[in-house]
Design goal:
This is Addiction module component. The chain has 72 residues and is mostly helical. Helix content is 62%, strand content 0%. It has five helices and no strands. α1 packs antiparallel against α2. The two termini are 29 Å apart.
Length: 72
């Protein structure tokens, strides 16, 4: 839901789309039910995701410099 909130904040979703998408996700009991979201809502999410570069983030190889992080 945090990503959807960010999409709203960046004006990538309208307030109505945000409410509708959030409600759909909240009432869905499974990922399969989420995938049944109406096409106009999916299209809005896809456009916003593209602008935010979410797909590129998910496809980026993992960073192997994690040993440089301070773990405490």
């Amino acid at each position: 839901m945090k990503t959807i909130d960010e999409m709203l904040h960046l004006d990538l979703l309208t307030a109505e789309q945000h409410v509708d998408i959030s409600a759909w996700i909240a009432q869905s009991a499974s990922p399969e039910e989420i995938l049944q979201m109406p096409a106009p809502l999916w299209q809005a999410l896809e456009r916003a995701s593209k602008v935010m570069g979410i797909d590129e983030d998910l496809l980026r190889p993992p960073s192997f410099d994690a040993d440089s992080l301070a773990l405490g």
